[in-house]
Fold each of these.
Amino acid sequence: MTNDNINTPSYETFTWLGPGTWRKPCIVHVTMVANARQALFGKLTHNGSEAVIEKTPIGWALISQQRRLLELCPEIKILADKVMPDHHHMVLQVQRTMPRSIRQVVRGYMQGCKEGARKLGFAENLYDAPPFYRVLTHKGQLHAMIEYVKANAERAWQRRQNPDLFRMHRKTEVCGLQFTSMGNHFLLDWPERQLVEMSREASVGQIEERLQQVLAAAHNGAVTYTAAISKGEQKIARVVREQGFPLVVLLNDGFPKDGSPHERYYKPGGVYFEACSRGKLLLMEPEGSAFLNPIVMAATEDTLRRKAEAKHYSYRPIPVESQRYRFVALNEIGLLLVER
């Protein structure tokens, strides 16, 4: 059902529409999850060159319902779709205003899938939760949506082949600080380490100069640590990752909360997923207690004071829970990890 030759109206046409008003042109990524995450729709295998999903009769029923959806709703175009063993994705484009909202259309599609499953002898509820919607809101998002759906099976296969690299670890302790982490923990034992921290005001030339220094050290065996907050830090982290060097990224609120429904199925997104599957990435999110550590607090306060004085401001303490405090503290934590 996927159409790789996507021809959509301008970005401005596809803006976020309030709940209940999704009858107008929009693009939506819909994810529907099987009851209790059962592998009702297919089996994940590999044919030697790529991961594939061998669909069950119920899985094929989902595809049949997609054809039915297009017949009933000519205003809709399916830009991408993927049936996975325990869930399925569709990226839907509403090309012109419809008599029903996209939510009503999806509900009808799911009801058709349930009826198809019942005809095949499946008496249980096919789904145990409402669908999850992601709405196109900015430029570049459509390509990411479609690539995510297309690569879903391959990512699932990589996770199966490298389960330890995608296992979330609570209470990872380093330097007396607690982290939630995922990725290659052997990177913590690497003897050579470097921290990338750059001001938001760094010039293009300064960023490029620092990038060359970081790449030279990475080539000589250093593991790069960064919070990837400023544009300069983000650019350097991206180039380090693209060139295949190991990377440790410090996150602020990057993992699902402990005990949340998304915890079990969390995986790093996009480019981070590929780096993680190759053992070149470690993601670390400090627990709240790390930001209250006396050493971290003293270092953060000192940095904030110096930044204020450099701009001739009188320094005023910033709340520990504020984003600015946490971003500065992330770099101080990174420095502790690098210098340990």
Amino acid sequence: MQGSYRKKHKCKSGNAKYRSRAGKGLASLTVRARPGNQSQGLLVAGNVVFPCALGRGGISANKREGDGATPLARMRLLSGYFRADHVSGRRTRLRMQPIAADLGWCEVPMDRNYNRPVRIPYGASHETMRRDDRLYDYCIVMDWNISARRIGRGSAIFFHLARPGFTPTQGCVAVTERVMARLLPLLSDRTVLEVRR
């Protein structure tokens, strides 16, 4: 899994019949912090608003590795993963693939695979994607520090499932499984998630 993220992640997308039924889908999702709680937010999808969890560090315009902040940015949704042993691969126009037992995500800024998927065991510090909890039952990779990768600007910024009570993430955006199931058919690799203050 080393090398180009884009080249290595060719996955199946929804079929053409479903794509035409779903129409154009969502061009954008907008996230803002909830007043009085920097680690929770409101996600706007079309004309519907959903609660979401944000990073423990709130929203930051100067995102750094390990700060726990959600980046203040426009991030395109690239592709995603799902836990095939927990959920079905829902119909979506995003490329989705099952999370393999050996899938990790490198989080060491000086490693050549920083902010890239890796096979574990791996020599540098990494996140295990096949988690014991259910946060990554659906996990969508956002284009933060991927297309233009910079050392120390943050890794593994995903759109995934939230813990009960919307407790803070490590910098990601997280929603309930029910909300994710509602959104997935409307998402594609043209959808942009914008985090605002």
Amino acid sequence: MSARTAVKAIQDIMRKDVGVDGDAQRLSQLCWLFFLKIIDDQDELLESTEDGYRSPVPAHLQWRSWAKNEEGITGEALLEFINEELFPYLKEMPLKGSHPNRAQVVRDVFAGAYNYMKSGTLLRQVINKINGIDFNSLSDRKHFGDVYEQLLNDLQSAGNAGEYYTPRGVTGFMVDRIDPKPGELLLDTSGGTGGFITCALRHMRERYVKTVADEQAMQAALRVIEKKPLPHMLCVTNMLLHGIEDPSFVKHDNTLARPYSSWGTSDQVAIILTNSPFGGEEEDGIQDNFPSQFRTRETADLFLALFIRLLKPGGRAGIVLPDGSLFGEGVKTRLKEKLLAECNLHTIVRLPNSVFRPYASIGTNLLFFEKGRPTEEIWYYEQRVPEGQKAYSMTRPIKQEHFEGCVAWWGGPGREGRVETEQAWRVPIATIQERNYNLDLKNPHTVAADHGDPEELLASLQAAERQAADLRDQLKVILAEALLR
């Protein structure tokens, strides 16, 4: 059975269970089950290749002990074991032994995990389907990784869960433009389901990873922080599926909860790639962690202040920001002034409003900047929906190849050779300053549609209404005459 067929069969079984409500809960349930199977498959491999290795999971709680046997416990006995023994232990698992990081990963994942299924019989059927996947098989893992990516994509329609997922066309383009290399410290402060990191892994493995040392340097330089339990669990599982041996760098924490002043030079990174939450507010007290001139409850603003601090000199960033951050005033103005003074904001790619549908339908932008010298000019590029398509949607999402025009325009290694086009324009810093740091500049090459003179349009509308009224009167007469016959 293929991975795709197996996952579809599992979802069909789960839909029969009264305890699982909607796509987000179904994916969460799938994830902790997959996670336990993956961890156990890895443990078996490590036990055979590493002298003295012992899994941090006690023997009687390992997948192979209670789940692998298709004739094993089921029904109420299975539910009782999972709810009263397995989950309580894993949520509080002691961090001891030769692999405390591995124990920490398991405990962090289960800190926010729940067993939603109410039927132990259906749960046994799900477990038996999962047993058909060998996560130590490169082929099985790759095929399942593709299916898992589609499951994550489906999150976009799962209510608020869509906020955790950035379209892979966007993450792939941003990673390609930032061009990370093995050993460069790479940070995603709002990791979500791990899209930026998985794209970065693929990018580096295709271009730069040639030796085991390259792979080790790459994995050792990854940093991810995710606040919410569901995306954290999805992200850790995603890392395992992408060949990460130790995903303990995926921290379950709130980046903004740490005082701004406590982030020092030792915390600085070479690359920031992220899509921070926007449109929401942080809890009371979080803004007090920041200097008074940057205090706000708007998450996008707080993250931008932190990015400027966390980039080391020469470091580069690719981030997603909403239109409101570009034209907003007050704290937003002070943040933009600081950004342009300390960083070279060289490119803003303006995205169509439909890119993040159905979760969000507001205008968004991709900002690319480098720390170390002030901005002298900003290049804008207007990304458009492909010809023949009205908007992006779940069934027709933005893809990385849609950015090929922008990539061709981008220029050489130092972005030399850029020229103004119908979709690209240059704005000097003086103009930005004159606009009080309002970065919301529309494409000057787009001619506004001429809808005509308002008085003439009104006269035409009134004439059309009179004509319609005359036609209605004629129709009434015809109908009346027909009834008298």
